Fold each of these.
Amino acid sequence: MSAPMQIVILEDNAERRRLMRDAIVDRFPQYDLRFFITAGEAIAHLRENYDTLLAIVLDHDLDLIPVDGHRLIDPGSGRDVADFLATQPVVCPIVIHTTNGPAAVGMETVLHDAGWKTYRVIPVGEFKWIPKLWLQTVRNAIVESVNRFEPLSNVSSGTV
Amino acid sequence: MKLPLDPTPYRQHRLSRQVSSDLADGNYVDVQTAEDELWVLPDGPHRHPRIVGNATPVKYAGDLRVDHGTIIDLTNLSGTFLCDDPDGLIEVAELFRQAGFKLAKSGLRFFPPDGSRSRVL
């Protein structure tokens, strides 16, 4: 049996991640759900798992990560992941959830120019948007994409 | 029959209704009951066990999207009931047709329980 398809999410807020996990498990329990809190880790994972992607979900703004009590690590942003994906074959839908409107438009633009289909969720209120608006958007993105994408092994051009 | 994985005997949701062709546009979760009735409830968090309620087993469950009386897509997606039979989804589609709905071309979408690539039925 092949590995389950994956839903990859870039999201640094712990409570958002908890609610997103609950929402996905309630509707898509058969799929592998992977969260990342830095763009670099997300890109590394995408490189290694490109042929099993069911959907990619991206926040834009990520908080600096404190380490050792006195240093901060720059986690990058959703734009870094979008820029990476724009150089890769189109394999699944992408959902962008961020309150940073200009950054979202930038991500959408670079992805559309590369042929990706994107969906936008504008977070409203603290967390209530996740179990309803966000889940429905992710659901619609995944359901609409059925049969739209060939397995990467069937794609003749493009490199990963 | 499928028992809900969450055995909590939830009360039936007040917006749950037996299906009829006047459904407003939007996303819904659905079940086919033991009596072959179709019930739907506007989509939301953990709604499947509350369509019928009381931890009642069902024949089939999934979700759908309605636009102007047409079902844009109909699936077997339910983490509560985990329906793994494509023929069951085809039967649900037929019940929706009997209730007066059109189903969009290529609208029947099956998600295998092993997490492999989904397909149009």
Amino acid sequence: MNAPDTRQALATHDGAAEGYNFAYLDEQTKRMIRRALLKAVAVPGYQVPFAAREMPLPFGWGTGGIQVTAAIIGRSDTLKVIDQGSDETTNAVNIRRFFARTTGVATTRRTSEATIVQTRHRIPETPLTDKQILVYQVPMPEPLYRLEPRVAEAKKLHALADYGLISVKLYEDIVHHGSIATTYDYPVIVNGRYLSSPSPIPKFDNPKMHMNPALQLFGAGRERCIHAIPPYTPVRSLDFDDHPFEIQRWEHACALCGSRESFLDEMIVDDAGKRMFVCSDSDYCHDRRAQQANDTTEGASA
Amino acid sequence: MYVAVKGGERAIEASWRMLDKARRGDTRLAELSVGQIREQLRLAVARVMTEGSVYDEELAALAIKQAAGDLVEAIFLLRAYRTTLPRFGYTRAIETEAMQVERRISATFKDVPGGQVLGATYDYTQRLLDFALLAEGHDVDGMPEHQARASVSAPQEEPVPRVVTLLNQEGLIEQETPSPDASEPGDLSREPLSFPASRATRLQNLARGDEGFLLAMGYATQRGYAHTHPFAGEIRFGSVAVEMELDELGFAVEIGDIDITECQMINQFTGNHEVPPTFTQGYGLAFGHSERKAMAMSLVDRALRAEELGETLSSPTQDIEFMLSHSDNVEASGFVQHLKLPHYVDFQAELELVRRLRAQHAARPIDDQAQEEQAA
């Protein structure tokens, strides 16, 4: 199983890179990553060290997610890559192109068509299914790093499930600001045991992690760690009885599709500082507009 | 309207084309060849090989050309290439004592067996811009420099003994001998860095570490942040043979020569209950001619031995996790520059929070505000 996957030459796809193994990584490396993934799935929320490689994209730009995707992707997969919820942001374009070149697999912008969704900073608005895998790019997998930068110490705290520090931090937020002042990368307890970082998704997305039918894999390349949330696993966002967890709300609806349920990006559209709010999830927004256009046409023709 | 987020693909392609053009510069001037970089920018090549952790002058020169002289980018290119290479096995430990020395100096003794060999160095140049180099095409063969270099590279008759070995005759300095039952050293390019890190792992990390980082941290140790009382016991540069045992043959064969720079720093140690006062070592090694790197590395290596030698831990330069986690420029450069990536989702989340907090702040009861003013 460690022989180079040379079938790529047969299954040539336009633009597939020559001279590299399927999905860039050699089979030994993929096997090493899969072992780490299996352990991560077996111990939900636990950070499994793995020997991340230098990738042809810089550390900090999604190398962990790319390595996880490279280790799990097969010829029949359909890949979607988003950054900030959008398929069109430069880094998403770059990573999608990387896999198109090195695997030749089909890529898509439609959440429902994808078997693997690699993401940075968002969970798609469209609910995922048990046929899908969500791969997160993770800059800092250690949820305690702002409180305890020493990895060796943080490991001990995890081993002892000693999470007092983070509760004190949230409590201090409430004392200072009247509410918890963490808005993204909001810490969660996975499966009632490990404190985990959801990667810097807005806390708006945290509830989507809970009991999600899809497998959620988190790859941190520079920090050389993988963690996972298996399908249908309870994920609790930290809070207090008298200060329950809550997500962001907007006074606005999306200016394009009118959604009031999605996470909105704010854009400054003129020199006078006029604002416009649109969905961060470009596929979701596009779908809704297509649906609306359809309805209008049907209405007109009827 | 959607320009900011749409059309990324075409914009990236256009950016690639512009990059190629910018790298090439003025086409009226001849293109720089990889061979020219390899021969005439040898110190840049050495740095890229060391921190890229591949000994291949041609590929390092190619990376420098492709990166338009940005050495950290070139190191990254070489590392990313290196990842894809199959691992055939491990060579035998190189014998630096058997080095064909081109340069060898010791700051601890006026003369030492094997002598002080200055070789090619900038150390004793006066740093005056040599405007003669501005005039191109006057490269004359048989210049005195060429002759000097030729005579230096002529093989010396016998291996040059190490200065620290000479000191050992009085038992004055600890010797670097393999521990009898030590486990095989790990391979940082194949295993994640974990703590506590053994000295073998630390030295691997420092050898790949950024020269600037090591220079600054080594400098800090000289300025009192974990002072290690260093003396440059020996610095040598030259070529050593690399030997590998081949399974089919059952014995070691020489597979080539590499140029390396080695530094053995001699540091004071006050001793403790068991050990009388003695000298200890800090060690530095780099590919090619890289004395600054090798020396800085040896200072940092010694500072990181504080715990093992029972010294007081008082400075970040002695903190193994701090130093090893931040020494790699491929990692550091990537993470610092990832801030260029879009963060508008997170920023939107923060905007929402700050607006809410400001609204609450403005709506505080008047009493609170008055109290604060009084206190102020």
